[in-house]
Amino acid sequence: MQMLKWFVGAIALLAVACGEVSEPSKPVIHEGEGLLELPLVSTSAGRSYKLVGATFAITGPQNATITDTSAESVSLPLTAGTYSIQMNGDWHVERTDAPGVAVPATLVSPNPMTFTLGEGETRPVRFLFKVPEDGNANVGIGVDSGGWITGTVQFAPRPPPSPGLQDVFYELAGKSIPFAISFESATVTRSVEFGRKRVTIDTAPVTVQFGGATGTAFQQQFVAALQGRVMNLRIETSGPSGTVVEPIRLENLERGVSFEIEPSQLNLGVDADGYALLQPTAFNSGFAELSALNSPSVSGPLSSGTFAPR
């Protein structure tokens, strides 16, 4: 069976602070607010796609419940701060030229997802989806040939920071935090090193998302520092049919921030030439470590993830 090509789509979410909105209007931003930009329809390769049937709950300095997602887009002023957005309901993705017909889609982003909105800032918030190629047509929401890595990290409890010191990871202590790293494209190189066949994947700039209850310092100093960085993924063949994925490291050396992921028991299989198959593969164990300047690093077991290298 021919392996499906996977594409990434980004659907931003509609939010309403009070009541429901059916017509987009020009928002007025007041002191202490930022602007959330939330389109629901995305056009790619001459086709448009829409998220249908979802409801959303936003919690934070200002709460919102979303039940009407009929509009194509909305811009919503919200009080500045850190928010959590939860997608609920019996949602699906469909083409606007074929209403009622669902397109197979996998939600990649954490749900709920955390975002921070600064005063005077315009912030797009997008839940990322992956959909398979539909015959010979280019499909998707923002079509590309990218991949993704998702998982959940269980962090151990830790004491509060000493007075006068900051710990950007303190809000993660004792929690299970889901994450997603998604990239739109990648360059794949095959080689043989020391008798072992290796696949090297150089990704395009990534989008990094975390779910759960994470704090403002974590979002602004850690997550923001990793947005737009690139990763180098290396996979070697081990034995006649096994594969070994080297530790995955996403970092920003200028900001002193790094995110290292080591999924275990991850066997992608090999192709007819003896190289690793680049297909989405689930894993249930591993290890992750987060580091930042002036904060103690934090680590924990990794579980419930998917490794999709392209």
Question: Quick gist of this model?
Answer:
4% of the residues lie in helices and 50% in strands.
Would you give an account of this structure?
It is a single chain. This protein has 310 residues and is mainly β. The protein folds into two domains: 1-143, no CATH class; 145-310. The protein contains one helix and 26 strands. The strands form six sheets. Strands 15, 16, 19, 22, 23, 24, 25 and 26 form an eight-stranded antiparallel β-sheet that branches. A four-stranded antiparallel β-sheet has the order 3-4-9-10, with no helix packed on it. Strands 6-5-8-12 form a four-stranded antiparallel β-sheet. A hairpin with a 2-residue loop joins β17 and β18 (196-203). The longest helix is centred in the last third of the chain and has 11 residues, at 216-226.
Key attributes of the depicted protein:
single chain, 2 domains, eight-stranded antiparallel β-sheet, 310 residues, mainly beta, four-stranded antiparallel β-sheet, 1 helix
What is the terminal-to-terminal distance?
Answer: 18 Å
Shape: globular
Helical region count? 1
Strand content: over 45%
Number of domains: 2
Amount of helix: under 10%
Q: What is the typical, i.e. mean, pLDDT?
A: 81
Largest sheet: 8 strands, antiparallel
Rg from Cα? 20 Å
State the low-pLDDT regions, or none. Answer: 1-24, 134-145
Q: Report the count of strand segments.
A: 26
What's the order of the H and E elements? EEEEEEEEEEEEEEEEEEEHEEEEEEE
Pairing-aware structural class of the strands and helices? Answer: mainly beta
